[in-house]
Design a protein that fits this description.
Blueprint (H helix, E strand, L loop, with lengths): L7 H20 L4 H17 L1 H4 L7 H21 L8 H4 L7 H16 L2 H12 L4 H8 L3 H18 L15
Helix pairs in contact: 1-2, 1-4, 2-4, 7-8, 7-9, 8-9
């Protein structure tokens, strides 16, 4: 085979491509695209190095297999050095990143609404919801009767609902709709 022979590469392809492709398919673990790429590169190497093919061997197949195997090894080593390749289905099966934006906005809205409350109402909500105190514990901490803690909690929540439209429907009477 010489570079000047226009049909030499076509003959080489016709004689060995199918078997070489099957061999390369096994080396690439069934990846057809990689096997085709390696086949083309192997045949390109044969075309660019005709002196290797004029060795007088009865078949070119051992030389082609050796070149293809070395190319497959080099390609695998190169892939292992790079970050993992991501296929089109990988994004569909990967977990979505946690987006805390809505939670941060809601926190800011609650803080803003709490500033609008009277100090007494705010103190009751802090005791009940932030410290987890019972009505009796909040009453003792604040120095007021338990009934006062209940009514302040009721009116404080009602004021918060009014100050935070869009965080749940409010109905007349101050109770949230189910």
């Amino acid at each position: 085979m010489t570079r000047t022979d226009p049909h030499a590469l076509a003959r080489l392809h016709g004689e060995h491509a199918k078997a070489l492709y099957g061999f390369l398919l096994g080396l690439t673990f069934g990846d057809r695209q990689r096997a085709e790429d390696l086949l083309q590169e192997t045949l390109f190497r044969a075309w660019t190095h005709p002196e290797a093919l004029e060795s007088g061997h009865t078949s070119m197949r051992p030389w082609l297999y050796t070149v293809g195997r070395r190319l497959a090894i080099d390609a695998r080593r190169a892939r292992l050095v790079r970050p993992a390749e991501v296929g089109p289905d990988a994004l569909e099966h990967s977990p979505a990143a946690d987006d805390h934006t809505e939670q941060a906005v809601a926190t800011l809205d609650v803080r803003r609404a709490l500033r609008l409350l009277s100090p007494e109402h705010r103190a009751v909500l802090v005791q009940i919801y932030y410290h987890g105190a019972s009505v009796c514990e909040a009453a003792e901490e604040l120095g007021v009767p338990a009934g006062t803690v209940k009514s302040r909690t009721h009116y404080a929540l009602r004021a918060l609902r009014a100050a935070m439209p869009g965080y749940g429907p409010a109905v007349p009477g101050g109770r949230a709709a189910a």
